[in-house]
Amino acid sequence: xxxxxxxxxxxxxxxxxxxxxxxxxxxxxxxxxxxxxxxxxxxxxxxxxxxxxxxxxxxxxxxxxxxxxxxxxxxxxxxxxxxxxxxxxxxxxxxxxxxxxxxxxxxxxxxxxxxxxxxxxxxxxxxxxxxxxxxxxxxxxxxxxxxxxxxxxxxxxxxxxxxxxxxxxxxxxxxxxxxxxxxxxxxxxxxxxxxxxxxxxxxxxxxxxxxxxxxxxxxxxxxxxxxxxxxxxxxxxxxxxxxxxxxxxxxxxxxxxxxxxxxxxxxxxxxxxxxxxxxxxxxxxxxxxxxxxxxxxxxxxxxxxxxxxxxxxxxxxxxxxxxxxxxxxxxxxxxxxxxxxxxxxxxxxxxxxxxxxxxxxxxxxxxxxxxxxxxxxxxxxxxxxxxxxxxxxxxxxxxxxxxxxxxxxxxxxxxxxxxxxxxxxxxxxxxx
Length: 432
What we know:
Number of helices: 13
CATH topology of the domain at 257-338: Actin, Chain A, domain 4
Largest sheet: 6 strands, mixed
CATH class of the domain at 257-338: Alpha Beta
Number of strands: 20
Strand content: 25-35%
CATH superfamily of the domain at 257-338: ATPase, substrate binding domain, subdomain 4
Structural class: alpha/beta
Shape: globular
Oligomer: single chain
Distance between the termini: 71 Å
Helix content: 25-40%
């Protein structure tokens, strides 16, 4: 009998080896989605290999802008295509929807925020809506979850093309301070996009999972520094193996990569006026778009090199002007020095709230594209007395990587891994 079991086991072993080498790997059945304020992305856990793939769209991009543009009553642009037409269609292009999802707003509160947005904000029964009007007179009121759904549809389509199968389930991430209403409305956006959301985890936990910190066999305090396109958030997590508990939260909802770009935009505009005699009043919408795209390119390039040559042509309404100048990393850091220093404020606030010393923090995890900026990394490391930061995962993709890993766990994909367990602590976010 034992000899028979041994033979059977050997047959099964070799059958598994053969299937792993010669048969195509099983396809993912669930996606992980990072629906961000500024950028969003989708990833899958590959059964068999255990790898996480952040999927690229048709343009080869792993992230898409969280922007939706309504050209007319039938045509909707999402992501990069929506971003390209924002200057020519500002009143019907919606962004920052995540800031409103699941929250209540009076009309007076929305009126105070209106100057920040080119589209109209309106309150119905204390629920925020985005009001748009088409050229034919048709009016439409869109909820934040409607905008989220359009972005998720685009990500779902990307996933289905890349894995060559239908996808109808997902795991999503949300900021650690999202309450139950915000989580439920986020899940509703997924359902509107055709995704049944099996689980929602916090962004700091997802980032920690991306770095494998859920596999630790000891207890520790972890700090997650998340600086994205529009916000800066810092979380302190207590972890004991796969268990995560948030012990402190602080952030600035109006500090991120867009703000660094704006400083750079004003700097470029000033040099264009003084050195190339550009008349700001004659700049076209396309000129402004070129300048803003150039600023984003400068910021990215200066994260990996010391200087960048800018060579652009502004058409203006009178005469074209060719602008050629060099921007150095030192200039970029100098003009943004006040904003960069503010990055440390939520770090200090979380340590104070949690009653922890710098030395109590075991790991510092960087999340968000803006944490690629060398000066920001230097400031954080210097604050912690030269401590090495966790940078092995692309910070812009860290949250999505962790969420995709959780999606693999939820779908029981092989190789099986330990799921993160989030303990609710009721910690309130300190807003700076």
